[in-house]
Amino acid sequence: MKKRFRKLLSFAMAAAMTVTLLPATASAAPDAAEGEANDNLLRIWYDEPATDWQTEALAIGNGYMGGLVYGGVASDKIHLNEKTVWDGGPAGGEANTNNYNYGNTNPIDTEEQRQAIRDNLNTIREKLEDKSQYVFGYDENSYSSAGTGTNGDAMDDLNKLMGDLTGYSAPRDYASIFINSHDVDESQVSGYIRDLDMRTALATVSYDYEGVHYTREYFNSYPDNVLVIRLTADKDGMIDFDTNLQSVFSYSASNTAEGDTITLRGSLSSNGLIAEAQLKVIPEGGEMTVDGSSINVTDADAATLILACGTDYKMELPSFRGEDPHAAVTERVNAAAEKGYDALKEDHVADHSALFSRLEIGFNEEIPQIPTDELIQKYRNMVDGNGGEIPTEAEQRALEIICYQFGRYLTIAGSREGALPTNLQGVWGEGSFTWYGDYHFNINIQMNYWPTLASNLAECQIPYNDFLDVLRVAGQDAVTAAFGIENEDGENGWLVGCFSTPYMFASMGQKGNAAGWNPIGSAWALLNAYEYYLYTGDMDYLRDELYPSMKSVANFWNEALYWSDSQQRYVSSPSYSPENGPIVAGASYDQQFIWQHFENTIAAAETLGVDQDLVAEWREKQENLDPVMVGDSGQVKEWYEETTFGKAQAGDLAEIDIPQWRVSLGASSGGQEPPHRHLSHLMALYPCNIISKDNPEYMDAAMVTLEERGLDATGWSKAHKLNLWARTGHSEEAFEIVQSAVGGGNSGFLTNLFSSHGGGANYKGYPIFQIDGNFGYTAGVNEMLLQSQLGYVQFLPTLPEEWNTGFVNGMVARGNFEIDMKWTDGVADYFTVTSRNGGEFTAEYPGLSEYTVIDAQGNPVATENLSADKISFQTEQGATYTITTETQTETVSKKTLEYFLNSAKEHLANGDVDDCVQAVKDLFNEAIAEGDAVMADENATRDQVINTAFKLMKAIQALNMKAADLTDLEMAVELAEMIDLNNYVSAGQQAFTDALAAAKDILADGNAMQAEADSAWNALVNAMSSLRMKANKDALESLLNEVAGLDLTQYTEESVAVFSNALASAKAVFANAALSVDNQDEVDNAVAVLRSAKDGLVAKSETPDPENPGGDTGDTGDTGNTGDTGNTGNTGNTGNTGNTGNTGNSGNNNNAGGSNNSSANKAAKTGDAAPIAGLMMLVIFSGAAAVVVSKKRAR
């Protein structure tokens, strides 16, 4: 029992440690608009409901589903998306009536078919190589486009290698919850606030109406996979609303309300996918009724709405179907309802906060005291220079941090293990989804996971890694369909084109769209996965899952690369640079990722000590790729034939304009195309590491290219530029991109912090939510503050003047080193390194060799000075090291400790601890005493302050561990001790003894919890109920004694034989100790049979009269009364031996004559069922009371 308590306590303590040390609660923060200060930097808030999902609604999610909170007063809307509600794939699941083949159209079953593909491939390669007429091998004048669609001679040949869009489609919008408040005049509402706390992932709406303060709380729980809404008021009986669940995913969906649950169920017409949602309404007080498909609640004190949803999608080839979702959804929503709102919220906050609180960042900011939309507008005024009010510098820093942390928030809300990865819109959207809302593999899905690892959220990349494991299998046929390479066992690789879906679409795009031709999609996808290994050091993942996939793609390129005589290098051919320009051989985009993939696969093989023969082949190909080429403008060339920006030339041909250069989805200003949004030829700089500060020629060329592309772009393109500029080390340009993103409006962050791709002139005309811009921005800030791609850590490599004072806690570098940093006026105060895996740590920072390295105990650590700016030292797994210029004791802030110490003392003074278990009382006393001591210690270390604050947090978190009410258990034990086991059969006695002992242990344990007491009570009562009293054998024993002295020689042989058999049977029954009251009939029957046999003994001197065999010994008529054979009491009249006919009354066991010895009538005297039953009624009554008490507690 104590072990169970310790386990529960340790769980609560762990949950407490996940909460950030900021003094905050999960409820809505104070209303700054009402004059109370906003004390939470990471709370985004608004003073009006949302009217538009893209720009205003608040996003909540748990990886599986997402919610958009509008927060209306009279009518609230929570829009829902379920990530697997997706059209396309095999129609009918297993039936596959549309012959879905992952987009591949070329037949590949026979050698003849595969040779035809190789012939088509060679045709286009030879034309691209031929420079006798055209610079790019094809007539440049034949190119034309509409959006990303491409026409021309080269496209006609490329189409023969591409797939089509059979089975390709978008996610389907799902449903909305509506909550309509009764009789509300919105003009009379005051104090309205709608907010989202990123630390806890709790959204709230609060307002005042007619003297009542109303609050709604919303969250998507990952632990319980439900969406929860809570409605409360500060006066009882004021919650009145109706709610319904409206489908937008299927016209045929049914929507029914029954009891407390609304069920929405339907299927997609395109593929038969079944989706179901259940919304359970749980009012507290008041009345609940059903009205059609709605549920009405009136006069309630509070109400909780819980929604669970799911589909029969399963990420498994080839049908992508699992079980009907009904049972799972029903079980999930019922379990959540049984768990209750408080526990759901507690587990949700603990789960989210455990991830989110890992990283803190500050730039000398101040917490804004204005709504977030106003803050963003002020920032836009500054960026646009439109003369409007601009934010203070401290407000600017605050918004830059808020946008950074929002990327981390969306990572947690949108990507959790067991779910699909985030797509172009994450898991949020309403209506149709731009660009299919799919998985774009030419930058977008990869960008979604750029910040994950450095931001200390490695678990959130698992959905991406898992997705690649399945996509790898689906993409094996694309190798053959597009290149004619045999690949039956998958050893020669797998491909994914520009885009994919949950149905693992993997072909090289669709005909007529050159952007779909993206053969390096798998190599780029695996770069993110390899980064996961570099950051975590997960050798099992590298060996068992990642390396086999990397190896197969390296084998593919080893086979697929084409030697170009004109370029004198191996090239990817045909090739395309997303998303502009002609079809070519050897676009820099392809060449760079192929080089990087060989580099990573070779490193992985050497780490694992395998495939050295293949390594030699891969290295030979890699060394002849020339992935970075510099043009005549000093730029990194996008195409081999490029000369200066926008121009190309080959052989003896004249220089031409590059066809399709800068074509930008119609985005134009004054009729002129702006610089293109894609920077596909700079992948060598980021996310690859081919270009670095160590090769200045390439770095200079990269900066020339970046300058040509400028600042304006889509939201996600700005994010890519931010990462690129961060890699250059040029902080001024990088920060200009930060400002352009944060203040970019429709081509930057919207007022709800969603990032926008943007449409119209220069992408600024109208918003198009695309989530990769959020993630790319967070990744870019990571890169400005910490880099580790070159095999060592660079501290603060691109620190702008605007962030010259600040700190970061919890950022992660490759090698699994967690880094804390603090700097003042642009100079580092200290760096703290926690080595999660151990091993050598190498870092670079100006003058770092002059710094001192100490361990957690303050002991100096030996370092190797590699240069004036670079040092190296060995680390132990789990150890923390500080790199500092300070030799004196660091001044440690005790503000957080003081907050939790005062809070603990307040709980103690208020009596909150009085009814807790003893261990919690002890913990409170110890933590408060320790807190007082540390507060008084001027030399207290940072670790002491942190550890003591954590201990106080643990104590506060454990307040819900109340001591059990043992009254019921005490009564049960008192009853049990009244029982004399000598009167009961042995069966069940051991269980009773054990249950009684366990119950006494609970009574003696000061740490007993209510659940333990209830369990002990139930076990003891069940054990008592199972006891069986021994059968009453008094009458049988008396009869046996009576017949023991009979001289059987005086009776006839026949009657003695009957008597002897009856006697033997009676003795056997008497000797059977296992007979209980349940077997009393067997005992009574033995008595009756033996008594009858005794009375039936016939003396040898008696000679029966054949005419009157009964003689004068009895009235033969009376012997017919054998039904009364139990009336053995009448046999007491044995003095009248002649009236033996009365022995027939022995059957009337209910009237046992003179002896009256049957067990039924003896029960009250012997302690049989009657007294224990009476006492059991007392126990049962007390148990019923316990149930009532339990229900009151739960409420």
Q: Could you please describe the fold and organization of this structure?
A:
With 1195 residues, the protein is an alpha+beta fold. Among the domains are: 31-85 and 174-358, Distorted Sandwich (Beta-galactosidase, Chain A, domain 5); 793-884, Sandwich (Immunoglobulin-like), CATH 2.60.40.1180; 895-960, Substrate Binding Domain Of Dnak, Chain:A, Domain 2; 967-1029 and 1169-1194, no CATH class; 1034-1163, no CATH class. The chain is 36% helix and 16% strand. It contains 30 helices and 35 strands. The strands form eight sheets. A nine-stranded antiparallel beta sheet has the order 1-8-9-10-11-18-15-14-13. Strands 2-3-4-7-12-17-16 form a seven-stranded antiparallel beta sheet. The chain has a six-stranded antiparallel beta sheet with strand order 19-28-29-30-35-32, with helices on one face. Strand 5 and strand 6 form a beta hairpin. Helix 7 packs across helix 18, helix 11 (521-536) runs antiparallel to helix 12 and helix 19 (895-909) crosses helix 20. The chain is globular, with a radius of gyration of 41 Å. It starts with a helix and ends with a helix. The relative contact order is 0.07. The model is unreliable at 1-34 and 1103-1195 (pLDDT under 50).
